[in-house]
Write a structure and sequence with these properties.
alpha+beta; 6-stranded mixed β-sheet; 6 strands
Length: 155
């Protein structure tokens, strides 16, 4: 019995180990900006009030932002690992394509039918940057967890 028919598909943003490490490095940089400015302001002999204020504001904004980026990297990496472990190979066929922006490269709203062996087909809509490889009828590689219909388009 398939219980996934009613579940909404969940797109997984794939993140490999290198990407996760880079995101975590960015998180550390964000976290350290405010305290570094505070340390410089505290050690300066001139007028440290402005630097102290900037450092305090950067710390107040940077710590939550850095923690959020760190946690996002962890969640995305864990979701990628889970999908790589339990997911099955599938095909996403483009069934509709609409150009939504062409200011800095073409961005399309793409409607795809995802299907595979032992998988109840379902449709998803994504915004994707693309070129000549995106056209109605094109087949893209996908990975799907049939238990909750979480998926990732691999190309």
């Amino acid at each position: 019995m398939d219980t996934s028919r009613g579940a909404e598909p969940i797109q997984v943003t794939t993140l490999n180990g290198v990407g996760a490490a880079l995101m975590r490095c960015l998180a550390v940089l964000i976290l350290l900006c405010g305290p570094v400015v505070l340390a410089i302001a505290a050690s300066s002999l001139g007028h440290p009030r402005v630097a102290l204020l900037v450092g305090a504001l950067a710390t107040a904004a940077g710590i939550p932002a850095g923690v959020a980026v760190w946690r996002l990297a962890g969640r995305n990496r864990a979701a990628t690992r889970r999908l790589e472990t339990v997911g099955i190979r599938a095909t996403a066929e483009i069934i509709a394509l609409t150009l939504v922006s062409s200011d800095e490269g073409h961005v399309y709203e793409v409607v795809m039918r995802v299907s595979g062996s032992g998988l109840v087909p379902f449709e998803v809509t994504e915004s994707r940057a693309g070129g000549t490889d995106l056209h109605v009828g094109a087949h893209l590689r996908a990975l799907v967890d049939p238990s909750d219909r979480s998926y990732a388009i691999l190309n």
